[in-house]
Amino acid sequence: MFILVIAVAGGLIAGALLGGSLANLERLTLRFAWLVVLALTLQIVAFSPLGAHLPKTVDVTLHFASYALLLTCVAANLRRPPVMLFGVGVLSNTVAIVINRGYMPASKAALRLAGLPVSAVPHNNSELAGAGAHLTFLGDIFALPHGVPLANIFSVGDVLIAVGLAWLIADAMRRPAAAGPRPVAVAPPTTD
Fold first, then answer.
1. How many CB atoms lie within 10 A of CB 110?
2. What is the distance between the alpha carbons of residues 41 and 57, in angstroms, rounded to a whole number?
3. Would you call 130 helix, strand, or coil by DSSP?
4. pTM, two decimal places
5. For each of the chain's 192 residues, which pLDDT tens digit applies?
6. I need a surface site. Which of 57, 65, 101, 144 has the fewest CB within 10 A?
């Protein structure tokens, strides 16, 4: 979730620097955008203190369902290049999570750098990458260092999601208002 905050802020700043307007954001339409809200809600439930009371199988199921919802929204909006980039990030995370039984593998170095506990107990949706972890290069291998606001670990997929979201916002801010067809000047008929 932290990377989404950074992406939104980055997109708003980039859009403003490129001469865009916040008013143009209201024209941004995505098919099935409500699926993104539902997906984020499922992740909040699964990985918040509320989710701590749920069986692990429910957490994993909610996690898988959230990515299925995100991929559905991406598929419905593939005509937009920023959504394609966002989708590559979602797909990257989905593959890593599915192949690792519902958790994103996390590197020990990234956990330490972010000031997070290095233990076999999963942190949020990440699990320490051990000998049985697969595709660890797609896992949480990067970190914002401890002491930096929103310090946490993140993956290549998270970076692609953030860049795609920021690009979508900046692009939407830059788009001029849709103009109707311009009137064609027609010369009045001449009488000779």
1. 22
2. 17
3. coil
4. 0.83
5. 678 888 999 999 999 999 999 999 999 999 999 999 999 999 888 888 877 788 888 888 998 999 999 999 999 999 999 999 999 999 999 999 999 888 889 888 998 898 888 876 555 566 666 667 889 899 999 998 998 887 889 999 999 999 999 999 999 999 765 544 455 555 556 665
6. 57
